[in-house]
Structure to design on (168 residues):
């Protein structure tokens, strides 16, 4: 049976700030093979919920660099998992800036409409991009203003919560 479990925003933000300029040795650094941004944000979210989704192909999990879900490291797979997840792990919804909070996620979109970068919200003072601060990998950032990025669009995702399975 699935039950709601806490998404600890403070723990997720603490993790993001701690590892913004470093790499946790428990996770592979994908920087040189496509980028590490979504891997890093997945780690942050996992630090806040402690639950992975081991569903083959459509889950969200990391065992090692060769045994992980596409959603753990892929920008588009991550977004699809986050907004469509009905199983274990974190889940969320697309949200306007005014509904975003610390511990939520933003993905950048290029002029062709392609999502290409995942960012973790570390601080937010209001709905203006100049008031949203993020942490990221690929181009390492710790409390960087969202407004300093060059993008055609930015889509926010509010983390609603997480679920865990009690059937063991």
């Amino acid at each position: 049976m699935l039950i709601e479990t806490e998404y600890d925003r403070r723990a997720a933000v603490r993790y993001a700030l701690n590892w913004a300029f470093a790499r946790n040795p428990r996770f592979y650094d994908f920087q040189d093979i496509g980028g590490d941004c979504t891997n890093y944000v997945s780690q942050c979210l996992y630090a806040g919920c402690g639950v992975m989704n081991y569903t083959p192909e459509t889950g969200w999990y990391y065992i090692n660099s060769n045994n992980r879900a596409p959603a753990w490291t892929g920008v588009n797979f991550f977004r699809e998992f986050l907004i469509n997840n009905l199983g274990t792990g974190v889940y969320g919804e697309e949200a306007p800036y005014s509904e975003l909070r610390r511990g939520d996620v933003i993905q950048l979109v290029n002029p062709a409409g392609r999502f290409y970068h995942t960012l973790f919200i570390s601080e937010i003072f209001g709905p203006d991009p100049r008031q949203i601060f993020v942490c990221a990998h690929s181009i390492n950032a710790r409390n960087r203003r969202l407004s300093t990025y060059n993008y055609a669009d930015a889509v926010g995702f509010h983390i609603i919560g997480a679920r865990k399975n009690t059937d063991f």
Q: What stands out?
A: The first helix runs from residue 9 to 19. The mean pLDDT is 96.
